[in-house]
């Protein structure tokens, strides 16, 4: 292969400078790697490389600190919003965000999530929703769809036994402290571009002191769903998007500062 073919200007994918060379542990087809790239790109474009602090708890997101060369703080399971609130209050000039899965955010950390958003903490919560506990064995999560099979509901989720899926993003949009609430995905180029714009808007709103932002990324877990990456994306488009429709649910970023 000639040097011209593999030269920098001919590369389709260019890794952001903030992403290091540590091999990712994510399963093939997982959405986490794409979202990591978007977060890195936005931080670089904002010039916040030395003033960003990410907080990640237990779950597939727990090793995010291995891949992005910014400051990170680990948090107990579900407690990332509480830790992020403390960091932002101590260092108001920092870009502070959490990176959480649906089991962590919508179940174990429901209290911390809802109250941080309701207080209007100037942080961004990035919420990866793949409707399952991906890291710990594929158990049912609060976001698991009705009829969806997991290791703890092998015959499918039923509302009579398991209750209904929880729409955390819709709840967040009703809270006084939130300024920007959106639901995105990263399964196509167009979706990736939209998700990046949403992350940028959320980060800018937090730095402007406008309140809390929640960016949900509807994602796949092809390993937990027992599907190929291609089939998982199709299943997500045909099923997840019906119950979790994409788009902005709340956008007050052009209004005056909340605090």
From TrEMBL:
The organism's place on the tree of life at top rank: Bacteria
By its UniProt entry, which InterPro entries does this protein fall under? 2-oxoacid:Fd_oxidoreductase (IPR051457), THDP-binding (IPR029061), TPP_enzyme_TPP-bd (IPR011766)
Q: Could you tell me which Gene3D superfamilies the record lists for this protein? A: 3.40.50.970
Q: Does the keyword DNA-binding apply?
A: no
Q: Whose protein is this, by species?
A: Xylanibacter caecicola
Q: Which SUPFAM superfamilies match?
A: Thiamin diphosphate-binding fold (THDP-binding)
A Pfam match: TPP_enzyme_C
* Annotated Thiamine pyrophosphate enzyme TPP-binding domain residues: 66-217
Annotated protein name in UniProt: 2-oxoglutarate oxidoreductase
* Alphabetic keyword roster: Oxidoreductase
